Amino acid sequence: MKAPTLADVARRAGVSYATADRVVNARGGVADARADRVRQAIADLGYVRNVAAANLSQGRVYRFVFVIPTGTNAFFLHLRMILGAVAPRLRLERTELRIEDVAAFDAPSLVAVLRALALSPPDGIALVGIDSPEVAAAVADLTAAGVAVVTLVSDMPDSARHAYVGIDNCSAGRTAARLMGLAHARGPGRVLPVLGSLSARDHRERLAGFRAILAQDFPQIALLPEFEGRDRAELVEQAVERLFDRGEAISGIYSLGAGNSGLARALARFEGTDRRPVVIVHELTPRTREALGSGNFDVVIDQRPGAEIALALATMRQISDRLPAAPIRPIIPAIIFQDNMPEPEDSALPEAAGLDHTTAPPGRQGGLT
Amino acid sequence: MKAPTLADVARRAGVSYATADRVVNARGGVADARADRVRQAIADLGYVRNVAAANLSQGRVYRFVFVIPTGTNAFFLHLRMILGAVAPRLRLERTELRIEDVAAFDAPSLVAVLRALALSPPDGIALVGIDSPEVAAAVADLTAAGVAVVTLVSDMPDSARHAYVGIDNCSAGRTAARLMGLAHARGPGRVLPVLGSLSARDHRERLAGFRAILAQDFPQIALLPEFEGRDRAELVEQAVERLFDRGEAISGIYSLGAGNSGLARALARFEGTDRRPVVIVHELTPRTREALGSGNFDVVIDQRPGAEIALALATMRQISDRLPAAPIRPIIPAIIFQDNMPEPEDSALPEAAGLDHTTAPPGRQGGLT
DNA sequence: GCCAAAATGATTGACGTCTATCAATTCCAT
DNA sequence: ATGGAATTGATAGACGTCAATCATTTTGGC
């Protein structure tokens, strides 16, 4: 009735414990015939190695690295903040977190970081994907070396990464289009897409999804040419200002990258009027929160970085533990209006929960006499 | 540099290992002065008991029970399905799941189930809350007996439950109102709320949130009296049919409970016309999926039962492990249009991930020779 | 049939906690 | 002071795995 141990496997396979151990831990030096018998016994018994016992025996510590772009991008700053907040808690679970900096949108420097990490490989690496053969090659080397590699936020489907943790960006773009269409009700309009860089897969996919639904279901809405703002607030601000100054009739803005504080500034001119365009942006940050609250933005599509980090960690741990892989589903983004803003994630006061379970409850055996 | 063990604590407190053990496991028979010294040493060293080692030593199996309402309610059927799907995987992690049936909206039978469970108490219980003093009393007895109790879907804030796992229903109602308002653009309208029962806290809260935002931001939308459909499709269908037959001008329907297949049938009469009201419902089920896809519903607010189950399990495990309680944040509901429907959760084919990590990768020590 | 190389078996000591038992000490009321 | 109770200490085995060592057997080439 209880779970089979490796000793059971060895017995069933008719080999010694030592041989079974050599097979499951890939130590080599086992004849094929024997190894197959062990594998068969594992399958027959449904043996799953007891990770707790394994970790206990070798005093294992999980070492995970998050490679995060530098710069003033509010989303990545938020990501760093959350990582900093969960790190102490994770240490209790024998997990060490490290953040490696990398220049944004920069394949060569990402490759350099990955190559450096390969020298003393951690157990897992989470990185923001960049479409580039060199990065893919570095990833392949890491996975070959037994490192769990997970792409975060933006995927690299053609690489050897074990899993992608993030939202379905195409679907997010379609959702934005649907909301934009809803808000235009039955009237016509002209919509401006603002993005960071077409070289980023996530931005490309969002734009494609947005376009597809607008074209399909909302023919009365015209699409202006997209603006590439490199995720930099001042560039976005200038560009939007210029359009307004030229008197362009803009009924909606879909900002699918970062740099939204610039957008908020550019929209200040509509304060108090009812002529502000419908504004849909990505990522809940202090700035976008504020703009939502004050009624300057309408919708925020948030990829829930906290959930992403949790899933990335769980995935890396699962791969490191060599457990049968659970299917990874995309993160479901939160669609946020001024009415359903969640608490900021840094308001995580452990004791605020008001409960402390660190001493045994009065269970079967009595307390004091 | 490594984590302190209980032996370290004992040494620091100047007591024997046995005494320290008696303190952390509440076995009793320790003089106050000594116990305090042990507790002080624990605090000084930041000792956290090694759960893996503890579970290993006693061959521990977590026993968790989900108490789920019976009936044809599609949401709860879905919840049961997901529980069935995760159960085998959890068994690998020494966790046993059981489902207990209970009549819906029925406090006495919930109390009976809880009392029965108390006879051989599991490690954790997740239940759908019902506001009733008797239920609260039963919950208090369970928590006093050391059982981790979590409310699911609908909370009981005044009970002794350890945590609530579910969405912020008030916020969800506000979100529905915002979407309804958006879809009404600047035109007037009349909106019908359909709910299961005002005795259910979650339904009450959604309705309150919905009302508040409509009143505050959309004065041009009139609110019809709400209909209580007991979550039963045929009742909902009849009631809505009757209203339409009477020629009521209805521009929007907010269905905040179950029974949406009845609603979909009642809306069939608008097929092909553009006079269908705006329809916002809760919970993604096969029926609401279909209605979204065919364009009969506009928005589904889904409380993501899979995420709820995962969080409930994690919470119960954490409480059972007597770890410092992490703050529990509400589940963020998914807002779903026809454009961003996620894969059904039962499409979870473990092997579909295409990866199997059950054998050691070629790590530090070489493979075959 | 011999030798080296390869494969296999047997065994042991961690890892940190829990449970249990038994011996030794302290405390307190009389 | 004495006896009984309460408290404390010491220790050992179990849990399942990993890493390591050493002894033994089998294999393959000649």
Automatic annotation (TrEMBL), chains A, B:
Pfam families: LacI, Peripla_BP_4. SMART domains: HTH_LACI. Residues 4-58 form the HTH lacI-type domain. This is LacI family transcriptional regulator. Keywords: DNA-binding, Transcription, Transcription regulation. One of its GO terms (molecular function) is transcription cis-regulatory region binding. It comes from the Bacteria. Residues 342-369 are annotated as: Disordered.
